[in-house]
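subagent[fold] <- orchestrator: predict structure for attached chain, return tokens only, no commentary.
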Amino acid sequence: MTTPQLVVHRDKELMAQAAAARLITRIVDAQSSKGTASIVLTGGRNGNGLLAALATAPARDAVDWSRLDLWWGDERFLPEGDPDRNVTQAREALLDAVPLDPKRVHAMPASDGVYGTDVEAAAEAYAEELARSADHGDVPTFDVLMLGVGPDTHVASLFPELPAVREETRTVVGVRGAPKPPPTRVTLTLPAIRAAKEVWLLAAGEDKAQAAAIALSGAGEIQAPAAGARGLARTLWLLDRPAASQLPRTLYPPATA
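subagent[fold] -> orchestrator:
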């Protein structure tokens, strides 16, 4: 696994704008080299902030949106269209404003879909969809997989000490009893996350400072799931100054702040 790199921005707005510009570059590079790009989105205020920044980015139209596959790292297991679903928020922030191929938008199942309230069946179905899109292995080679970092160090819906973060074989699991509402969710596991070329962890705000410090101090992934989120080629933490406030200054170059 790769060693985390850190980039610290002045504030959350600048962080979102810089991350959006960085993502556009990665997508365009991937499409230039292999025709398509595959990105895993994250929800929450930082993930949605990045998408909103991307929607207004000057270089937005450099992306061939019809050749972009979008996946999700996790989803709240709620009815289709529920405002708390990550896909609903992503559509409002960006997706409805760009010419995506609907067949390439891989939303996780909703609780009123064909699997009903069976979250395990929904998770298995998403795992099968990932496998069908993979050239080899169980998941596609994601160009960039983005994750928000929770104040408790959770990423996706992998919460400290819960069974999902201990999963070693399955790529997608159902979560029941999550400590953050809603309690029922679908999530990628660490094995799926680690199949990405690049993993980006987004953290902005003073409430994320302790989580960033714990995850980057050598904590174990069971106790601090963010510590286990690593990419094959790169692991990048994108933070604002408040989120980086408890980190040793030696962890990131002065120019990045």
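orchestrator: received. Logging for downstream: Residues 4-247 form a domain with the Rossmann fold fold (CATH 3.40.50.1360). The first helix runs from residue 12 to 34.
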